[in-house]
Amino acid sequence: MMMTRLTPLAATVLVLLTAATDPVPIDWAMVARIREEGLQHSQVMDLESYMTDVLGARLTLSRDMQRAQEWAKAEMGRIGLVNVTAEPYMDFGVTWDNEYVSLHMLEPDYSPMVGYPIAHTPGTDGKQIADAVIVDLQTRPDLETWRGKLRGKAVLATPPATIDLAPLTNGVPRRTEAELKALEETVIAPARPTPARAPRNPDLLSAEEKMAFYKAEGVTAVLQSESGWLGAVRGYSRPGSRNDRWSAAGDSASPVIIAITPEHYNRMYRILRRGIPVKVELEVRNRIGDKVEQAMNIVGEIPGSDLKDQVVMIGAHFDTWHASPNASDNTSGVAVALEAARILKAVGAKPRRTIRVALWSGEEEGLWGSRAYVRQHFGNPADSTVGRKPGYDRFYAYFNQDYGPGQYRGIYLQGNEAARTLLAAWMEPFRDMGMTVVSNQSVGSTDHVSFDEAGLPAFQFLQDRVPGTGGHTNLDFYDTIQAEDLMKNAVIMASYAYHAAMSDARMPRKSGFERK
Ligand SMILES: [Zn+2]
What we know:
Layout: H1 8-21, H2 28-40, H3 44-55, H4 63-79, E1 82-93, E2 96-107, E3 111-112, E4 115-117, E5 128-134, H5 140-146, E6 154-156, H6 166-170, H7 177-185, H8 207-217, E7 221-224, H9 248-252, E8 257-260, H10 262-273, E9 279-288, E10 293-302, E11 307-317, H11 327-346, E12 353-360, H12 368-377, E13 379-380, E14 387-388, H13 391-394, E15 395-400, E16 408-412, H14 420-427, E17 437-439, H15 448-452, E18 458-463, H16 483-502
Parallel strand pairs: 5-6, 6-7, 7-8, 11-12, 11-15, 15-18, 16-17
Antiparallel strand pairs: 1-10, 2-3, 2-9, 4-8, 5-9, 10-12, 13-14, 16-18
Helix pairs in contact: 2-16, 3-11, 11-16
Bound molecules: zinc ion.
Zinc ion is lined by residues 317, 329-330, 363, 402, 446, 471.
């Protein structure tokens, strides 16, 4: 056969065409193996069940969390990950665990009530019976109104909760085609300057000041309800706990604070409004540590081969709030990340780059674990106090899940338009699963932000809304998790991690953070 000799011009055109259309390679055989393992031999719901049923809630730096982290290390070992480590990252505070809560209305009618203590508050001194009283405490003059009147009372400290009935009447529709299209195509308008805020009324009391007053007045407990969801208690950490770094002194200087489901709270509120007395019985036992301890992230690896010094990361936050196992937020993300790693080991993947799985802690309190990890391992060239660590240039990409348990419908570019080609190409094998959107939006509020703010490519998947009881509540259990969604997510995360670990193309970084 004879070669046709190209003219120089034709050769140039051909090279240009090739460069412009050169497809990102997809390892279809590996995709098939990943799909088979993840969809026909899935263990993701078994993981989800163990973590939510057996381990339960995992407040950062609780005994619960320490026990769960031991399990996570063992589980990573069982999957076959190496270099499994618990990495301490900061003196976080003292441990706090709720061990018992009992809550009842005694008068005018007996009713058990559902409530949970706010994290990092003390327990009661045994069983307490108290008259309930509505207190509207907003300003400094209000302090004088209430001074000397609250000893031994159970204070209803928030206005009656407004319950949102929309999810009951409307259901929770998955993302529509129109919505997905909008996420793809929306032009991002430049942010408008925010108008200067009016100065804060100096008479307004902060949450810390209110709690200090209640403590000084000797209340039996502060009761509150802020969820707005049927049956749900939302309770976080006591006001000021972040400022005093979850200290034992801060914990014991707080009154007992109990968040109550809105129906039970509102019932007491309405009875009191009629001028009829309400008597409650309550008991809370919390275990508070006596020394400051370090919080930890758990990491494990599938070692790379010729590019093993470079790292692709997948992960999710392992910590939760304390009133439920938080099946959706973020046990579902952890189950997906661990299952993705298990799938890759099960199919015998031999990645070129090292694939590292990270289970963060301190996320709910403000991304403490992942931020510390990025600072220690990669650095930040834009921050002179940290600088660029050797690991910075050897980092490839991070993929995170933390927007509930809904299935992946796409991925957010996070302001990195240059990453579109690779992220879109790796999506191609999963179109039949409804994974179709590369959104130009940037999203926040979880651990990919810690990487992104240091200029490291880090991405959050675009997920379906699915019905459930939501994160950060007492109702976030295994039962509302939809298996098919997590199975698909684990397959997709495994494939993204694999293709990122094999890619000949470098992952472009956001403008301003390109390699020097
Ligand atoms: Zn979360």
